[in-house]
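Onboarding guide, step 5: your first structure request.
Type a short instruction followed by the sequence, for example:

Predict the 3D structure of this protein.
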Amino acid sequence: MARRSLYIFDFDGLLVDTERVYRAGWRATFDRVGLDMPDAELEEWVGKSIDDTRAVVTERFGDPGLFDRLYAIREEYVYDVIDRGGVEAKPYALEALEAVHRAGVPVCIVSSSWRRRVMAIIERLGAAGLVDYLVCAEDVDRRKPSPDPYLKALGHFGCPAGEAVAFEDSLTGRSAALAAGVGVWLVPDTSSRPFEIPEGAWHADDLSIVLRVLAQGEEG
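The system replies with structure tokens like these:
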């Protein structure tokens, strides 16, 4: 395997165990305001962008302003968990970032979350020095599954798509990477509902795959 010039990582559910926190936050929010939203539907929100969840809420309740009010409550819940140190790195996540950083290969995070939240978690985990660039929700007009976040990352580093490798936990993220021409490893989030791995997809059980990909590249 040729040495990769850029490693691109999703964030929620891949590097950090946040999806369960987000689901719990939404559950607490809907319960607090007395609106019905089944847990099964909240499970479907995993890996989706704020645009997708906004559309679901607006269609279900018919109130265009409701989502922003609910989201503010959910964010209070999430930041409280972050402040209490309740968000943990996924297995091998920090080791993977450290290994790529030591190898002198740029690390980029491409996330559908807001920059403020991503940075708050990264700093809490002491990993800010391991990340070279962030593409977050506010940095693109179209979020995953659009390829735009990946194209922005590639453009920042001047990296051809074929020289980058991505790691994603959801099919939405995988679609975005592939649409940008970037090869992608799928590492499903075990805290979320299982899904069928597409035929031929590169996939692994955890982020130790990053260490193996890096070693293979160094061996030529």
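Each response can be followed by summary notes, for example: The mean pLDDT is 93.
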